[in-house]
From TrEMBL:
Gene Ontology MF, one: oxidoreductase activity, acting on metal ions
Any GO BP annotation: intracellular iron ion homeostasis
Required cofactor names: heme b
Stated role: Ferric-chelate reductases reduce Fe(3+) to Fe(2+) before its transport from the endosome to the cytoplasm.
Name of this chain's protein: Ferric-chelate reductase 1
Family matches, as InterPro entries: Cyt_b561/ferric_Rdtase_TM, DOMON_domain, Ferric-chelate_Red/DefProt, Reeler_dom, Reeler_sf
GO cellular component terms given for this protein: membrane
Gene3D superfamilies in UniProt: 1.20.120.1770, Reeler domain
């Protein structure tokens, strides 16, 4: 044929009849869904404490029963957990004379649909947990007594009814080897927890009047003043001798959070959350391991914790030392970091993925240095240009080019330009423009990330398929 349409080969080769670029736009709007209640809780094996950021309940309502009170090495003892409906659990066997020690023996499952084996302290099958968040009232497993079993064994279980309601290390009765001396030493089955950080109510709204003077402030929008525009997002740091007072304000619903980061990408960050729990606000330090759900940490480093819920606004404040030697996951505030600000929904104390891109400062800042008044962006300029170019290419130039080829071939059949049919020249120009814009847009995320991003979900894969 003398004339052929100039096309983006990959798109039209893949496209089925009736398939349009709009379908790709739809695909790119699909969000990935993270699922956390899988029972893979090996990080909690030692302390048996869920990383939910709430204090455990005091009086257990669930029970562990055993099929026999004596055992010999090699025996299988049936262990039953029962009680009101619960979603999650973690079951281990410990030496009754050293309940803080490593798990003893291994388990065999009776129903693998509701329970699974975990490897704790490098001992395969030494713990049992749930497989999903479906409600359960009874779990049965077998415990296999090892040849090196201590004289006395006690089973401990942590039970989660819902995210902020759980019981830690509920004990069973003690089972013993037949020739063992009677067990007489009683020890606490639950490790003592630290005294909760005192919390008070804020009596007045935060103010931006000292921003840039005494306070290091991050505001969205930049003119935000929580004393006047209460729904805006506000974060401030006020340095004292050896500590920093933090104030955060924003919409009442869900949660507010900020994090210190070494780069402009989520992962390995020092984070702090204020979570609306209906009538109170829970202030919680946390950290991230990659693009995952935050891991809640101890509140011990926080002092002077206070909060306020009123007029559709949530506010919280706390003080922490600039340096916290020996405290894991807390950064030294004498260093510069990128600062993230995010918000999202929360239900029953459990937080969900932020509702929009976090606001990220344009550069690294040291909040204990000179007071400043800064803003940030919810998207890098490179990523904004990437999105704009892809939109122009796939929603404008390519669409017009296809329409020209489809409807103007007969209309402009006798009009020529530079030796070719006019409709074909216009079509070719538009499709070449689409190719150039796509190529430029394609390389921008790689420049922004400095290479391939393994943590950006499905978007980069779909983008590569579309432009292949």
């Amino acid at each position: 044929m003398r004339q052929q349409l100039v096309r983006l080969p990959s798109l039209l080769k893949m496209a089925a009849p009736g398939f349009t670029p709009g379908a790709f736009v739809f695909l790119l709007c699909i969000n990935s869904v993270a699922n956390y209640p899988s029972g893979k809780v090996t990080q909690s094996c030692h302390g048996m404490i869920p990383e939910h950021g709430h204090r455990p309940q005091a009086d257990p309502v669930h029970h562990i029963t055993v099929s026999q009170v004596t055992f010999r090495p090699g025996d299988q003892v049936e262990v039953t957990l029962s009680g009101p409906p619960f979603k999650g659990f973690l079951l281990e066997a410990r030496n009754a004379e050293d309940l803080s020690g490593v798990p003893v023996g291994s388990f065999t499952l009776i129903d693998s649909q509701v329970s699974q084996l975990l490897t704790c302290e490098d001992i395969q099958g030494s713990a049992v947990s749930h497989t999903s968040s479906s409600k359960k009232t009874e779990i049965k497993v077998y415990w296999n007594a090892p040849s090196s079993a201590p004289n006395h064994i006690q089973f401990l279980v942590t039970v989660v009814e819902k995210y902020k309601i759980y019981w830690v290390k509920i004990p069973s009765q003690i089972i013993s080897q037949p020739d063992a001396l009677p067990f007489t030493t009683l020890k606490a089955t639950v490790s003592p927890l630290s005294t909760p950080t005192p919390v008070s109510r804020l009596t007045k709204l935060f103010s931006a009047s000292d921003c840039g003077k005494k306070k290091f402030c991050i505001r969205s929008p930049l003119s935000c003043d929580p004393e006047k525009e209460q729904a805006c997002v506000f974060l401030s740091f006020t340095k004292h001798e050896h500590s920093v007072m933090v104030e955060m304000s924003g919409p009442r619903e869900g949660y507010l959070s900020f994090a210190f980061s070494h780069d402009q990408w989520m992962g390995n960050d020092d984070a702090y959350l204020c979570i609306n729990e209906g009538q109170t606000v829970h202030v919680q330090p946390a950290h991230f391991s990659g693009r995952s759900h935050p891991v809640m940490d101890s509140r011990d480093p926080l002092e002077a914790v206070a909060w306020r819920l009123a007029d559709g606004v949530m506010q919280c404040s706390f003080r922490r030392n600039i340096t916290l030697p020996g405290v894991k996951n807390r950064f030294d505030l004498n260093t510069s970091y990128y600062i993230f600000l995010a918000d999202g929904t929360a239900n029953d104390g459990q937080i969900y993925k932020h509702s929009q891109q976090p606001l990220i400062t344009y550069e690294k800042h040291n909040v204990t240095d000179y007071p400043k008044n800064i803003g940030g962006s919810r998207s890098s300029l490179l990523l904004k240009v990437h999105g704009a170019l892809m939109f122009v290419a796939w929603m404008t130039t390519v669409s017009i080019g296809v329409l020209i080829a489809r409807f103007f071939r007969s209309v402009w059949s006798k009009a020529f330009f530079l030796g070719e049919a006019a409709w074909f020249q216009v079509h070719r120009l538009l499709m070449l423009t689409t190719s150039v814009l796509t190529c430029i847009a394609f390389i921008m995320p790689f420049i922004y990330r400095g290479g391939w991003s393994w943590h950006a979900g499905y978007h980069p894969y779909l983008g590569c398929i579309v432009t292949h």
